[in-house]
Amino acid sequence: MDTVVGPVELVVLAFPGSKFKGEIIPAVGELVDSGVVSLLDVALVTKDDAGDTLAIELADLDDELRGAFDTLDGEVSGLLSDEDLGLVAEGLDPGTTAAVILWENTWARGLVSAIQGAGGVLVAHERMDAARAAEAIASLDNEEE
User: In total, how many domains does the chain have?
Assistant: First the structure.
């Protein structure tokens, strides 16, 4: 029997001023603990003010930051390549650190299984970021007034 895998997403969260201290970890932990997502890989990418970049795998973080990630359940497996992290670094502004998270949307496994069982195939899947979604919903609310 084939293993059903939900959609996998790459999430890049930028922190201008390189002020990432792990504050998002509890919220990510809630997603993992509730079974909404499963972590597949985590890394940090930093671009200093001179434009030099550094990619740091979870295992190579300093004790304080690595300790923050220790609260998360999941198999962090090294699926992100140096090339992946290099592409993230290219898109960062100088003086920025980004958390790079690869996760499986485990909440969708049942739907994926049902689609496959029915002989269906996913043709398109787009995501809208939260800011743009809020803006679109607000514009609808304004039209109704």
Answer: 1
